[in-house]
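dude i think i finally got it to work??
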Amino acid sequence: MGDNQIEFTTKQLAFIKSSGGNFAGTGVPPPPPPIIIRVHEGKNHFYKGNIGIGIPPIDTGVPVGLTVAGNISAYGAILSNEGITSTNYVFSNNYLGTWNGGPISGSKVNVEAIDLRSTDVPGNLFLKSNGLNGVEWDTIDDTEIIFDNNYIDGNLTVIGDIIEYAADGIIYSKTSVFSKDLTSGVNTLNTFDKTQFKTAKYVITIAGGSNRTACEVLVTHNETTADGTTYGIVDAQATSLLTNINVSVGATTIDLIITASSDCTAIVHGVAHY
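look at this
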C-alpha cells in the first residue's frame, strides 16, 4: 500500500458510500482508522505465488510455499500431504499419521501403544536403558534381570534352567527339566554337569500311551562313582513301565540309567546342588 493510500474496513466503506463519499457529510475524507487486524470477507482466497509472513517468501519452486517468520497457531487441523518440517520443533497435543521411520530425537518421547515399531532391528532384542540417558536395542544377559520385589504376582514361564545362589554367591542349586524317548530295555539319560556336583533329587514321570509310572531318585557322587536310591514308585496300571533305574558318572554329566519295560517317554524334573 502506498503512502497516500488509506485502507478502510467494510463497515467504514459502507458508511462513506451512504454519505456520498464524505466524512459525516463534510466533504472531508475520514482519518485513517487504527486498524490492527484486517478482515477480508469471503470463504476462499487464492494466491498463485509464494507467501511470506513477517519475512520475504522463499521461492520453493513448484509447488509454491508459505514462509513464516514467527509461530503458526491453529485451532483446527493442519493437513499436509508431504510433511511438516521445522528447524526448531513442531508442538501439538495430538499427532495423527504414520511415522516414516526417521530418527526421533529429544529429551523426552512418550509412546503409548501396543506396538513400538523400529527399522532394520532383528528379532529377540529388548529395549533397555544404556546408562547414558538413552535406550538401545540389545539382548538381556544372564546377570541383567534383577527383581526389586519380594514376590511375583502371576505366572512365571521359564524356558531353560533356574539357578539359585546362596548369600555368598558361590554355592547354588540348579533346577532343570530333562526328557527322553525310551525304548524297551536300557536307556541312558544325561542330566546335570558333574563339575562341582554334590547331590541331586529327581522326580521322574514315565508315560507310554495311557500307562504312567512315577518315582523319585536321590543321587550323590565322589567325582568318580555315583550312588543313588529310588523310592516312591507308583504305577497307574498293573504292569510298571520301570524295570530298573541306576545312576552313573558320565564323561561330563551325571546320568540316569533307566530300564523300561516298553517304549515310553521319560520326563525328569531335577534339582542339583553344587
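The longest helix spans residues 10-18.
im so relieved honestly
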